[in-house]
Amino acid sequence: MSKIRIAIIDDEKLIREGLKIILSSYEDIEVVGMGENGLEALNICKSRDVDLVLMDIRMPVCDGVEGTKLIKREFSNTKVLILTTFRDIEYIQEALKNGASGYLLKDSSYDLLYEGVKAAVIGNIVIHPDIALDILNHKNANTDPDKILKAYGLSKKEYEIIRLIAEGLSNKEIGEKLFLSEGTIKNNVSTILSKLDLRDRTQIAVFAYKNNLIK
Questions:
Q1: pTM (whole model) above 0.90
Q2: Is residue 143 domain-shared with residue 187, that is, in the same domain?
Q3: For site-directed labelling of 87, which of 94, 97, 102, 173 has its Cα 20 to 30 A away?
Q4: Are strands 4-9 and 102-105 parallel, antiparallel or unpaired?
Q5: Do 41 and 105 fall into the same domain?
Q6: CA gyration radius, the chain
Q7: Do 96 and 19 share a structural domain?
Q8: How far apart are CA 131 and CA 123, in angstroms?
Q9: pLDDT, tens digit (0-9, with 9 covering 90-100), for 18-63
Q10: Are 114 and 15 contained in the same domain?
Q11: Where in the sequence is the domain holding 167, given as residue range(s)?
Q12: The domain that contains 23 carries what CATH number?
């Protein structure tokens, strides 16, 4: 069985060691490196094969937002999952805009953390339920979804796909909900990315939250 190779980045040694013990208890996860800031995270990615970086957001020298930007610039296939005690909406949005695959709280249950890692690795967006509510409450209530759809030339089907991506569903899961093939959903996602001039699914999710497209 192929293991998910992760790096743990946190400026507190006890947190790093604790997370290593927890995650190493799962048979399909291997902790291949640990560091205390975003620059060390980048160096680990340069020296080892890393599938996912589990990273704190507030750290000296190089925080999680900047660390995410550096990693995604050089290693676009490496996922970054933000894990922190802070629920700063601006930090969350900046991390997502820079390519993070999601945002979990440090008080998340072990199983939620484990499932989050697995979901992020296969390309899903992972957002802790409490944080999702914070983002929804923080978004611009004056944004009119119909105007956004018209401005970008989005169809109702594309709107549904955007909404489901923001909820963290995979192409297969979206296809099952909309009674469409996985290939059709994949083609629609490519069209959405082109229309919105975005890079990936994470940016689609950020677009949805910022523009009040979530029901």
A1: no
A2: yes
A3: 173
A4: unpaired
A5: yes
A6: 17
A7: yes
A8: 19
A9: 999 999 999 999 999 999 999 999 999 999 999 999 999 889 999 9
A10: yes
A11: 139-210
A12: 3.40.50.2300
